[in-house]
Amino acid sequence: MRIVAIDTTESEGSVGLLEPGVARELRFAAGKGHGPHVLLALRELLAGAPLQSVDLWVAGAGPGSFTGVRVALSTVRAFAFAFGRPATAVSTTRALAHAATTQARWVAPLIDARKGEVYAALYERDGESLVERVAPFVAKAPAALERLRQGVEAQQSLTPVYDELTGARERGGEPGRGALLPRPQDEITGARERGGEPGRGALLPRPQDEITYVGSGCVLAGVSPSGANGISALAMAALVNPAPPWPPASPLYVRPPEAEIKFGPAPPLDVMASLVD
Hints:
This protein has helices at residues 35-46, 66-83, 92-99, 141-156, 233-239, 258-263, 269-276, and strands at 3-7, 12-19, 22-29, 56-60, 87-90, 106-114, 117-126, 129-140, 211-216. It is α/β, with parallel strands linked by helices.
């Protein structure tokens, strides 16, 4: 199967090609708009192969630039319709997490949303797959980091934790038989968790509670995201199931458009129609 993915959710776009024996990606700077660059990059990516040779079209669904999301979606929908092929979309946060080289249990993509905000989500590693634990959202940076930590805590409360040395359980039972053991963060270490000062009894988070942040365009106080190489269209192609059904090529918006923020929601279509009559 030949899969082509397009991502234009950021100022730097990318197109990716995935088929047996081939995995190729091209990146481009948008300049004043993604549209012309996408078509030129597709021509180079396919190296002379016709557009109708593509079996599945994939777009970056967002979150990201509103205009950019629409460029990728409209392009894949147009080609899919023209050549009778399916089209689908993949979230930018999942693609960013998938492309990260870390094998950490908890992975949190961070994408610059401007206005002092970030797009974020939380994924838990389960073997070779990533399970979404906190759906993509937008928030001011400090609030976003706190929400991600709460997402980890919520999942940890559902999962028994075993002592690495004895194999005893953390909650309930007798020593050696599912023992109630103090969690590492209950011990005074002088390390810092969310507050307090080092050396003054602050709490240390459990190793399995630690989040690995992977970023695109983000530099946050106290957080250094790794793998900040931009969102990968090739990663989106790799995330698509090789067989149907595929979800529709729909956008993932996590905040209202700027026009709606400034002027309020658009009137219903019937109201608009009455203005024309």
